[in-house]
Amino acid sequence: MHSQKLHILNIPELDKIIIEIKDYFNYEINYFTEKKDLIKKINEDGKFLENSIIIVNWKDFSSLKNKTNEKQIHCITKFPIKISNLVDQLNARLIQQNYSVQSNINISKYILDINSRMLKKSDKELKLTEREIDTVLFLKNENKPVNVNILQKKVWKYGEDLETHTVETHIYRLRKKIKDTFNDDSFIESKKDGYIINE
C-alpha cells in the first residue's frame, strides 16, 4: 500500500504545527500555498490523490470538491484545533477511503467486494472464502498464466512438500462455484502453463 499522504492547502497555522510534530505523524505531508498548484498536480498525476487527504479551509472547500471525491477533503473551519482530534479524524477518513476502494474491484465482467467477500455480476452474488479472494486477486494482478507451484507458494504459502493437486482441487472448486452461480466456465481459465483470469 502507498504511504498515507496529507496535502495541506493554504493553512499556514496548521503547517507550522505539523512541521513541528511531523516525526510523530505516519503521513507524507505536502503543503500548497496556491490552489492552482494543487489542482495542477491533481490533473497531471492520476495517482497523486491515492490514499490521500486534502486539508482545506472553508473558502477553498467548495471549489475543490468538484475536483475529487469529497471523502478525500477535510475542512477546518476554525482555530484553535486539538491535534489529537485532527489525527483521529484523518485516520478515520483514510479507513473509510480504503473500505470504499476494497468494496468495488472490477475484474473482467465482475465486481469483487473484499469487505463482504462477494463476487458480483448483475443481480447475482457468490460468497467466496478468503483464500479464494486471494487467488482471484493474485491471478488478476499477474496478467499472465500462473502455474500451480507459484500459487502454492505465494497464495497458499505452502512449501514444496505439498502435493500440487491440493491447490488444483481448490481452484477446481472455485471454478465450479463460479460456473454454478454465473454459468461462466471461462472466468478462470486453465492454460498449459497455468491459470489466468479471462479479462
SSE topology sketch:
Blueprint: E1 5-9, H1 12-21, E2 28-32, H2 35-44, E3 52-57, H3 58-64, E4 73-76, H4 83-103, E5 105-107, E6 110-113, E7 118-121, E8 124-127, H5 130-142, H6 148-154, H7 164-182, E9 188-191, E10 194-197
Parallel strand pairs: 1-2, 1-3, 3-4
Antiparallel strand pairs: 5-6, 6-7, 7-8, 9-10
Which keywords apply here?
199 residues; alpha/beta; Rossmann fold; Arc Repressor Mutant, subunit A; 2 domains; 4-stranded antiparallel beta sheet; 10 strands; 22% strand; elongated
What does this structure look like?
This protein has helices at 12-21, 35-44, 58-64, 83-103, 130-142, 148-154, 164-182, and strands at residues 5-9, 28-32, 52-57, 73-76, 105-107, 110-113, 118-121, 124-127, 188-191, 194-197. The chain has 199 residues and is α/β, with parallel strands linked by helices. It has 2 domains: 5-103, Rossmann fold (3-Layer(aba) Sandwich); 106-197, Winged helix-like DNA-binding domain superfamily/Winged helix DNA-binding domain (Arc Repressor Mutant, subunit A). The strands form 3 sheets. It has a 4-stranded parallel β-sheet. It has a 4-stranded antiparallel β-sheet with strand order 5-6-7-8. Strand 5 and strand 6 form a beta hairpin. It is elongated. The two termini are 24 Å apart. The mean pLDDT is 83.
